[in-house]
């Protein structure tokens, strides 16, 4: 047994974490029409068996209009009953399980959803395939209610934690952005007003669940877009979230599924595979704008660390470092620098047993090569294309 910081326990809200490794949300792509499948349960039990202290069920929408597309879970009471099987299975493997909840906003595919979506300010959206109208104040009240209801359902389903999606250009993240949010009411204008919707959501989720589960947020440090949400906004916003006191931790991310997705992945751009995974019309469009949308960023180990350090020195609340963590020494050094947790996406897609291997000292780094060929598989069952046992 390794005597490393990463294998020391931690209290997070009401939770006792056995180590510091969290499986970051990676959309599983096995929820046909939003139903919980055996494949979804298997996906998470495998991660749980592999040693991570907590796995995250990716992107559960808080309402039908907030889905990414029609094969997305809506965290309603029916789904809560179905998800109980998943949370029981993860717990049986000795791990905890978190539900990521969100509203996709401008990233929602409204054709697939057959339901309109919402934006801070009216604008065209490629994923929505058309114009998305600015949400009214009443619609935003309903969004806050929906987050509360989804949080209650997550508790009912047996989740240990709730991660509010405040990143990647989804609805709450789009409200933070000075580029996307041109409102002049209480939800738009300066940094504080643009943070209002996310703060109301965090408050509602906490008031709904009390101290029964941990509540965290996946939070954008930098949209990776000129004129977007960046440190001058994101640091004060994080301070506001900290002083509100509703969140147990922040998971630090960046980028935008709407405007700059590769900023939060880093690595190769598998454009040909992505085009092949799309309906013909979308594929044709991607041939034209694909290289512009999927800008290329070289992979670097712990690529968000320079940004995340700004947050570590500005905040006292627990922080999760995310982004390109593939090595045991990276995780260990992150803890030595004061981050409480590390979150890993692709490293655990490549090898869900990696944390056990770290603990048993049979590996010091993962085998992910950042080819990003797992990304197009989100439409057919997310997996690492290099894993021989998965078809
Ligand atoms: C296939 C795939 C699907 C993803 N789906 C989600 C998602 O549903 N929600 C989310 O917040 N992030 C999602 N991400 C982003 C990851 O959570 C993480 O932010 C990103 O991959 C960087 O971490 P990593 O370098 O450890 O993979 C996804 C990543 C991958 C590779
Ligand atoms: S397909 Fe596998 S090796 Fe390639 S980026 Fe995804 S997890 Fe890593």
Looking at the structure, what is the overall shape? globular
Uncertain segments: none
The CATH topology is TIM Barrel
Structural class: alpha/beta
Name of the CATH first level: Alpha Beta
GO molecular function, one term: FMN binding
Pfam families: Oxidored_FMN (PF00724)
Protein name: NADH:flavin oxidoreductase
Keywords: Flavoprotein, Oxidoreductase
Description:
Residues 6-228 form the NADH:flavin oxidoreductase/NADH oxidase N-terminal domain. This is NADH:flavin oxidoreductase. This protein is an alpha/beta fold and 391 residues long. The chain has a single domain (5-256, 299-370), classed as Alpha-Beta Barrel (TIM Barrel), CATH 3.20.20. The chain is 37% helix and 14% strand. The protein contains 15 helices and twelve strands. An eight-stranded parallel β-sheet has the order 3-12-11-10-9-8-5-4. Strands 1-2 form a two-stranded antiparallel sheet. Strand 9 (214-220), helix 8 and strand 10 form a beta-alpha-beta unit. Helix 1 runs parallel beside helix 2 (77-92), helix 2 crosses helix 4 (137-157) and helix 4 (137-157) packs parallel to helix 7. It is globular, with a radius of gyration of 19 Å. The two termini are 33 Å apart. The mean pLDDT is 95.
